[in-house]
Amino acid sequence: MSLALYLGYRVKYIVASHLQTEVPNLFNHFLRCFLIGGPKQAQRLRLLDEKDPPRVDLFITCAGEDIETIVNTAEAACALDYPAHCFRVIVLDDAGLKGLSQKIAKSKESRRNVYYTARKKPLDHHFKAGNLNHGYKYVESLCGGPAPFMAALDADMIPDPKWLRALTPYLLKDENLALAQPPQVRNSNYPLHLVTS
């Protein structure tokens, strides 16, 4: 008898939890069937070749990933199709990896807009959010202070060369907009993760 009750409750709650996740999706698909003219396409904006586009601080958060992966991401970020004097790439090392600061220093010989910083984590360090806050405090000490815009990449995200030109126009167009997040896309032409928008 106990086994029958257990199985009954188990089936009931599995079905109920499945319905909670699937019913909203089914309802959304049902509504799309009756959408006249199809779904609206978002306006695609691009920042054209301006000599002085808005300044951006681009943070690369890392916490113990492979050093070569982090360096590849930093190199790709430095090579964005954006004037080098208008953006800085800051590698935020939350693990204090041995050798990473030297690799970034070597990159700085050819790319002046790349920086490295590592924080001493307090007990309540807030993980990635704390690392980003550390990065913001770090750029306050750099020449020119913090840029008006901040972008963030994970250590294994290789950005599309026009990434900043695709994101900044939305933030410039709407002063009430505080965040623009592009989708992550895998591209088989690249050996690493590729982020495009």
UniProtKB/TrEMBL annotation:
GO cellular component: membrane
Signal peptide: none
Membrane topology, as annotated: Multi-pass membrane protein
Domain Glycosyltransferase 2-like: 60-192
Protein origin, superkingdom: Eukaryota
Intracellular or extracellular location(s): Membrane
Keyword field: Glycosyltransferase, Membrane, Transferase, Transmembrane, Transmembrane helix
InterPro entries found in the cross-reference section: Glyco_trans_2-like (IPR001173), Glycosyltr_2/OpgH_subfam (IPR050321), Nucleotide-diphossugar_trans (IPR029044)
Main location: membrane
An annotated Gene Ontology molecular function: glycosyltransferase activity
Protein name in the entry: Glycosyltransferase 2-like domain-containing protein
Species this protein is from: Lepraria neglecta
